[in-house]
Amino acid sequence: MASFEGVIGASAVLIGGIGIFWNGFYKFYKKRLIENTPTSKIRSIAMGMVEINGKAVPPQGKVLTGLLSGDKCVYYRYAVEERKTDSKGRQYWTAIDRGEKRAHFYVKDETGTVLLDPTGAEVDIPVDFTHTLSEGRKTPATIVQYMVSKKINPKQFFFGYRPLRFTEWHIAPGDNLYVLGTAGSNPFKTKAVRNEEGAMIAKGKGTFVISDSSEKEILGKYKWQVPLQLFGGAALIVGGLWFLMQVITFLNGS
């Protein structure tokens, strides 16, 4: 049993190290791509990989409403979690529902406006709304409506509220955005959708990032994340391989 647990443990360390190393390598690739892609004004974007900065603008009459917050937005993502306790008494949060709503919206700078299709993008934004059910604390009407629609009972079996946490991330009209994506022809330019440039930014063959952080802030995060994950992942890979070889040697000798 101990030898079997040793193999499982060594394999877990090895697989975890590979995952961390790969994530660090991917962030290194994105960091170089961001550094090497010049920032363009919307009026002068060319077809292909582009990098722009601007404010989020919803299409007329098509503003979204955050499912949990009730706030007006052009994109939202949410998670509903419940606090659990394992056999050793340790508490953790587990998701009982996740989702997001993506729709076309515009990005506008001082030179023009371009349509954005966020499908397939890595949306890097902070938490905008969070609420945890608790006794004596008023539950927002949007949370009540959500629980009714999903048939979620907020009460414990015996007393009090279930330990549920509601979290939402969203992009609101007017939010400053950094976008790295692929510019192509706007498929709606002959219809009622307005677009001064006749182009649309969407997911192409390369990286597609939408963030409310500036380019400087994104590169600042990658500056320490990349080496930490590359070297940390490599160390775990080496350690996992060494541990696994020790277990195999022990098993062959027993």
Provide a brief overview of the structure.
The protein is 33% helix and 30% strand. It has 254 residues and is α+β, with helices and mostly antiparallel strands.
Shape: flat
Into which percent range does the helicity of residues fall?
A: 25-40%
Q: How would you sum up the major sheet?
A: 5 strands, mixed, barrel
Instruction: Give, in spatial order, the strands making up the sheet with the most strands.
Output: 1-6-7-12-11
- Whole-number average pLDDT? 86
**What is the tally of helical segments?**
3
Structural class category: alpha+beta
How large a portion of the residues is in β-strands, by DSSP E? Answer: 25-35%
End-to-end Cα distance: 13 Å
Order of helices and strands: HEEEEEEEEEHEEEEH
The count of strands amounts to: 13
Strand and helix map with partners:
Elements: H1 2-36, E1 48-57, E2 64-65, E3 72-73, E4 75-85, E5 91-102, E6 105-108, E7 113-116, E8 122-124, E9 129-132, H2 141-150, E10 164-171, E11 176-185, E12 199-202, E13 209-211, H3 215-253
Parallel strand pairs: 7-12, 8-13
Antiparallel strand pairs: 1-6, 1-11, 2-3, 4-5, 4-10, 6-7, 9-10, 11-12, 11-13
Helix pairs in contact: 1-3
